[in-house]
Amino acid sequence: MLWVSLAIAAPLLVDPDVNRDEAAASVQSAAGIEDLQVMGLEELLGARPPLLSGDGQVDLCTRAPSSAGQVSEQLGKAEDSVSYMDYEAALSELDEVDGLLACLRDPVSPADAARAYFLRGIVAFDSGDEGKALQSFVQARQFDPEIAWDTAFPPRAQGVFDQATTISAEQAPASLLLVPAPPDIRVDGRLASTTGSQLTLGPGRHLVQLGPEPMTTFQVELQAGSEATLVVPAMVDEHALREIATDDRVALSAALGALLGEGQLVFVAVPGGIWKGSAGGRAWEQIVATEPVAIAEIIEVPAPELEPGDKGVRRGLLGVAIGTAAVSGALYGGAALTNQAFYASDTPTGQLEQVQQLNNGLIVASAGLGAVAVGLGVVAVF
What we know:
Blueprint: E1 10-14, H1 20-31, E2 36-39, H2 41-45, E3 51-54, E4 56-59, H3 68-83, H4 87-101, H5 110-126, H6 130-143, H7 158-170, E5 174-179, E6 185-187, E7 190-191, E8 198-201, E9 204-210, E10 216-222, E11 227-231, H8 249-260, E12 265-270, E13 273-278, E14 284-289, H9 311-343, H10 352-381
Parallel strand pairs: 1-2, 1-12, 5-11
Antiparallel strand pairs: 3-11, 4-10, 5-8, 6-7, 6-9, 9-10, 12-13, 13-14
Helix pairs in contact: 3-4, 3-5, 4-5, 5-6, 6-7, 9-10
């Protein structure tokens, strides 16, 4: 699924904090391109559904959201139909299981998903289609790598099942780049381990779930050894364009390739400069450098000066300083006593931690009040 821009004008994507007219003028001057399609990232994304570019496909939920309980109930019906060798009913019920899995708002149960494909393998084998049986058993192993042959079934299909185990181990993995990189992601019911926003998965069908419950579920199908990018527009931050000025621009560029078409010339204006590159490509160059936003200077407000005649105020400050210093000294004395208690042989072991905490608190309080006393004394004298 790929949306390609039909506009002849080169896209200029502008960060919300950058002036669009100024950015367009800078690109026209630096690159000599007059015809620009100026837009923000939110305008490019719009209300677009998730899309996948590369070798694979994404299937979105087209029905009401489902629960794990509904999946288990429907799977039970399919189990009964397979047991009675009513394969036509079983396939219909397993198709319903697939539809429910694709619309789950709960975490996928890997065991349920694997069981559904195991049953498909049994039905396909007994119907004379060993190729489809093998494919179903391989898919079952994708959901549950530890799945074992169910001895409740006759062993006639077990050889094909064992062959699926060998194939699963030999297949080249596929790579899926997620844009944006979500904080919570489950693949086939398990928390996914990502490198940045990159997932390494076995080929075949996978259930990708994003976010906390209620979750958003997609079915993604990948080819062996393939590379694909899954873009979820609703989760892209409005400031995501700023990644173009970092070493982490690969995911953003891949997303632009999915949205605009691979190789499309595109300009990106962010605070600090304007970048030029090909959507989906890795080579980007900065063609305009702008001044960074100046950091506001810290204005020092001088302390009010006391006139020489303000003797009463000075004496008052000096008195407060002396009193504060006395309190600081008392606290320090208390700290010295608690320190002695800590090392005393008759102090119970269970109280040592409390004594140490009290000692630390008295030292900190003493030091703080001592600093205040010094400050007041300086103001009073000078």
